[in-house]
Amino acid sequence: MLLLIKRCAMHNTTKLRDGLADLAESVVPTEGYEGKIMRRADRRRGRRRIAVGAATAVCLAVLVTMFRAVGFGSTPQLAAPLPDGPFLGWSPVGDVDAGLVREATSVWDRTNSAGPHTDVRALVATRHPRLRSTVVVLQGYDKQGDARLAFFTGDSGAADALRMRVDRPVPDPVKTQVISLVSPRLSGAVGEVSDDSAGTYAIALAMPGVTAVRVSSTAVDDEMIQEPDGPTSRLVVKRFPLAATAQTTTIAGFIKTKRPFASLTRVFEVPGEDGVDGDPRAVPAEVVGRNGQQIIVAFPKDQGVRRGQLAVVAEGLVGRVTAVDTVRGEATVDLVTSTGFAGQVYTNISNVPGSVRGTGGKLVMEGVPANGEVYQTNRVLMPDPSQQSNQVGAVTIGRASADKAAGATTVELTPTADLANLTRLSIMTPSAP
């Protein structure tokens, strides 16, 4: 019986298969049927690609938004502290040493009979490892009731006793973002130039909110400046060669948000403010005309501008004052490339001597010892007659355009100052008595 059932099932399955085959043979696809199926499949694949692309775009947008929110965001702003009356309303840097404040105030009171000072407040009162000495910055009223700002540093030759280095009017408490002092006279007795091992020091104090400060000078090559953008406190003390001055120093302040991936944002970049008592004064001047190989500059009257003084910009030497009209407050300056310009110079570091002269369009260093080595881009300095020595405040006049040939005594220089686009400069004058 079981065998019979299996045979019937097998017979019925065979008949079913044969019938389906016959049915399939009678079905003929209409013309273009395959193309319609392929186009329908292409449309479905296209819709899938669009959907995937849209999803990818959404994901990228989300990621960009996330990175902006987390890492970048809008440009951070530096909020200026409210003024403290006529004074800078800045919080002090670090811990304030009350003993140093008392000592500095006493020195301040005795100097130039300006004391007693009242309502004195400290911005800095600490020992700084870079200077290996104390640094104090005070604000207060003098006996005339004028708001003043003073810098003090220690005297290395007198057991680090505090000396007042400069006493200035308090700067605008609303607009000021950094105060600074640049001088080679910050480590010894008042008015004395540091020895070569000490060099010129730049002290910069930035307003609260600044997270990094960069102090740089064109008197030294960039590769010799250590960590120019490294994060620091608001107080920076930096040492440069004796040739550095406030006029060749630039101070930049940066802020950085606390978001991950955030980068430093520069919020200000200004020149060094000034030197100390005993340093030459830089008289600001504006270029008002050109006369062949000379420029005419206007300067504030009664500033002691004389013939022979150097005209400089941050990048280097522009020329020398050859005529002064005290009535008009104007001076004529021979450019370093003019035929009327000449002077004694030496190479930086290697100290190879020589003289320079302008040819009307170029600058040439001559009288170089035959065995003296001058290589391309070597820095060449000219002493400033307003200074007390040939090294202090010497101005970069140019760089060697090529290596000096063996046995040669001449090499062409490329001026470091942009002589063609001058608008403003400084005239270096001797310190007032």
Protein architecture, described:
- The protein is 17% helix and 35% strand.
- The chain contains 3 helices and 22 strands.
- The radius of gyration is 37 Å and the shape is globular.
- It starts with a helix and ends with a strand.
Give the overall shape, derived from the CA principal axes: globular
Structural class: alpha+beta
How many E strands? Answer: 22
Instruction: Report the total helices.
Output: 3
Order of helices and strands: HHHEEEEEEEEEEEEEEEEEEEEEE
- Strand order in space, largest sheet: 11-12-15-14-13-22
**Cα-atom radius of gyration:** 37 Å
> What fraction of the residues are assigned to beta strands by DSSP?
25-35%
For the largest beta-sheet, the strand count, sense and barrel status come to: 6 strands, antiparallel, barrel
What is the terminal separation in angstroms?
A: 138 Å
Helix content: 10-25%
Q: Please, what is the average pLDDT?
A: 83
User: Unreliable segments (pLDDT under 50, ≥5 consecutive)?
Assistant: 1-37, 54-73
Note the main attributes of this structure.
single chain, six-stranded antiparallel β-barrel, six-stranded antiparallel barrel, 3 helices, 433 residues, disordered N terminus, alpha+beta
Topology:
Blueprint: H1 2-25, H2 33-70, H3 98-110, E1 118-128, E2 133-141, E3 147-155, E4 161-169, E5 178-183, E6 200-206, E7 212-217, E8 235-240, E9 249-255, E10 265-271, E11 281-291, E12 294-298, E13 310-313, E14 316-325, E15 330-335, E16 342-347, E17 353-358, E18 363-366, E19 379-382, E20 395-400, E21 411-415, E22 424-429
Antiparallel strand pairs: 1-2, 2-3, 3-4, 5-6, 6-8, 7-9, 9-10, 11-12, 11-22, 12-15, 13-14, 13-22, 14-15, 16-17, 16-19, 17-18, 18-21, 19-20, 20-21
